[in-house]
Design a protein that fits this description.
Radius of gyration: 15 Å
Distance between the termini: 23 Å
Helix content: 25-40%
CATH architecture: 3-Layer(aba) Sandwich
Order of helices and strands: EHEEEEEHHEHEEEEHH
Strand content: 15-25%
Length: about 180
């Protein structure tokens, strides 16, 4: 497994972003926090500022295996408005590479037609944006190369679903046990 990039726009939901980064790094997956703002410090929707590993313009997407989009407001809107990032999301989708989105962020994939015919989940008030998807109420949903999550309370499930997709169910279950998370299926 190569690299996962988690993208941060101003107003991201910190638990959805940082829980995923934490779990992936614990699993030994090369994971970078990437700012779309042009600044190396990005503020969350609740005023938590985190230093990023890299700026969007510094990412070599040829070496990236998965894009992860955390939710939050206005973070999700800021991600969707970032044309260079959306160009990469489209390229990853077209190439069958992995894309993950949680909470409000699956709406981005719905707006781009990427969820048609797939099971997907999101924050309840964004389910109408999952255009063409079979909406499910699972904490996290793996549908081929796309993984979606419902919201902040499901961030661990979402992170473990990514680990499962990249390293297998056994590795995800072992990680869930190591972090004393008893809800992983």
């Amino acid at each position: 497994m190569g690299k996962v990039c988690v993208f941060f726009g101003t107003g991201y939901e910190e638990i959805e972003a940082l829980a995923v980064v934490d779990l992936l790094r614990r699993a030994g997956i090369d994971t970078e926090m990437v700012s779309i703002t042009g600044e190396d410090m990005v503020e969350s929707s609740h005023g938590v500022t985190v230093k990023m590993d890299r700026l969007l313009e510094e990412v070599d997407f040829g070496g990236v295996d998965m894009i992860v989009l955390p939710g939050g407001m206005p973070g999700t809107k800021n991600l969707e408005a970032c044309e260079p990032l959306m160009e990469q999301v489209d390229a990853f989708y077209k190439a069958g590479k992995y894309i993950g989105a949680i909470c409000a962020a699956p709406s981005i994939l719905g707006h781009r037609g990427m969820l048609k015919g797939r099971k997907a989940c999101s924050f309840p008030s964004f389910e109408s944006h999952l255009e063409g998807a079979e909406v499910v109420k699972e904490p996290a949903q793996i549908a081929g190369n796309i993984i979606t999550g419902r919201g902040m309370g499901c961030a661990v499930d979402f992170g473990l679903a990514i680990v499962e997709k990249l390293q297998g169910k056994g590795q995800a279950a072992a990680l869930a046990e190591r972090v004393v998370y008893g809800h992983y299926k």
